[in-house]
Amino acid sequence: ETRGYMIIGSGSSEGTFRQTGGTLKQTASVTSSVSTNHLYRTNPDPARARKFDYPTLIGFQGGKGLYEITGGTATISKSVFVASCFSDDDIPWGINDKGQELRPSDSSFPYGQTTGTEGCLRVKGGAVSIPDDCTVGKGGRGTIEMVGTNGTLSVGRLVATNGVKSVLRFVCDRENPAAGVSPITVADKAMLDGTTLEVELGESYSGRARVRLINAPHVEGDFGRVTVTGKSAESAVVVKDELGVRLRIRRGFVMVVR
Fold first, then answer.
1. Using one digit for the tens of pLDDT, what is the confidence trace for 194-247?
2. pLDDT surpassing 50 at residue 37
3. 65 within 8 A of 9, measured Cβ to Cβ
4. What is the DSSP string of 61-127?
């Protein structure tokens, strides 16, 4: 179990977190004691402790971050930003000696640094649950990548509205060409205005003609760029329906009468 910020790749660094099994529980609500030094928590005063909600950041302030899961389970209780965030997200980053939250609007903390920021959440196995918002590409190039059918990703709300910097990539199972790919499951709504969608069917895809990509009761906006590669790519179209978003592969046959 982790508490407070979970940041993968910040500043000039590249960070990678790979989960191959076990259970990860990211508890964003943290009880912090006021101290004479809010960064190092010296001389804490338990009587003045308060709870603060912190996000998970994959790629931040110009850094490059990758979180890849191939097994196990992960529950991240508060917001996740794949490729940074901005000051208008109003995220706390500490407390002062009076027990007050320090936020981007009243501090010099560089939330707005976006040059070179990249983040990727790659699900190849296991199960990831984010009950809160998952924001992709707001402050850099962010990617959610679903690979094959061994993993699942569920989020409260999916926000991917920054055009070419917000990428949703689906890679169909190469070992089992008939399996397809696991969808992203959204509890509330998917906001996809201008989002980049990439689907890799593979050269031997033999699965269903309808490939579910996103399960969501509400979908807002349209994709800005759609790229489908692999077998039957030229006959594939993206369809929004009452269940979310799917890829439809138009199939038919030619009858020759002599």
1. 999 999 999 988 888 899 999 999 999 999 999 999 988 999 999 999 999 999
2. no
3. yes
4. TT-EEEEEEEEEEEEE-S-EEES---GGG----EE-TTSPEE-GGGS---TT--TT-EEEEEEEEEE
- Least Cα distance to 230 among 182, 170, 183 occurs for 170
Give the burial string for 1-18 (b: 16+ CB within 10 Å, else e). eeeebbbbbbeeeebeee
What is the phi/psi pair of residue 238, to 5°? Answer: -95, 135
- Among residues 5, 20, 4, which one has the least CA distance to residue 151? 20
Please state, in angstroms and rounded to a whole number, the distance separating the CA atoms of residues 192 and 194.
6
In tens, the pLDDT along 61-73 reads 889 999 999 999 9
234 by DSSP, 3-state: which?
helix
Measured torsion, CA atoms of residues 22, 213, 79, 14, in degrees rounded to the nearest 10: 70
The one-character DSSP state at 41 is T
The residue to which tokens 């989002």 are assigned: 195
Tokens of 172: 């169909």
Do residues 148 and 110 lie in contact, with contact meaning Cβ atoms separated by under 8 Å? no
pLDDT surpasses 60 at 88: no
